[in-house]
Amino acid sequence: MRREEKACRQRAAEKHVPPGTIVREPGWVKIRADAEARKPNFQRHTPGKMNKWESLYAERLRIRIAAGEVLLFWFEAAKFRLAEGCWYCPDFLVLLASGEWEVHEVKGFWRDDAKVKVKVMAETFPFPLIIVSKGKGLEHWQYEKIKARKS
């Protein structure tokens, strides 16, 4: 629990605010006064399990294998150490038919930590990083290539 949230809950308890009441203070968003924290609105990713977009993109990679563009791909098969206690696990590690390696990251939306990790990954390791996002329709994918550092 964040320090600010804890302090707000403590002030609410001192004011004898009944549990379940929304506390509004200047500069604060709605915070529950009871001890039970609310669940976040988003679902966290389960490691080793593809979400809907990752599954659709895996199908796209299988089509590229059949076309001869890609030899193999792996889902969450590698972890890259970016700094002390900070790791990056890309969605797909892709071996192209030319023998080159690429890292593919499927994104629906960006969190701040993901942006930083992708930038550090591109600056640190010699693999091109492909950011994949879903366009309109089932067959439309948008690609953004972040160049790798020179090895």
Topology:
Blueprint (H helix, E strand, L loop, with lengths): L2 H12 L7 E2 L7 E2 L19 H15 L3 E6 L4 E4 L2 E3 L3 E5 L4 E6 L5 H13 L4 E6 L6 E6 L5
Parallel strand pairs: 7-8
Antiparallel strand pairs: 1-2, 3-6, 4-5, 6-7, 8-9
End-to-end separation in angstroms reads 42 Å
Task: Give the helices and strands as they follow along the chain.
Answer: HEEHEEEEEHEE
Can you tell me the CATH topology of the largest domain?
Trna Endonuclease, Chain: A, domain 1
- State the helical fraction: 25-40%
Low-confidence spans: 27-38
Give the CA-based shape.
Answer: globular
The order of strands across the largest sheet is 3-6-7-8-9
Radius of gyration: 21 Å
Number of helices: 3
Work out the count of structural domains.
2
Number of strands: 9
- Average of pLDDT: 77
Fraction in beta strands? 25-35%
Could you say which structural class the secondary elements and strand pairing correspond to? alpha+beta
CATH architectural arrangement of the largest domain: 3-Layer(aba) Sandwich
What is the name of the CATH class of the largest domain?
Answer: Alpha Beta
Describe the main β-sheet briefly: 5 strands, mixed
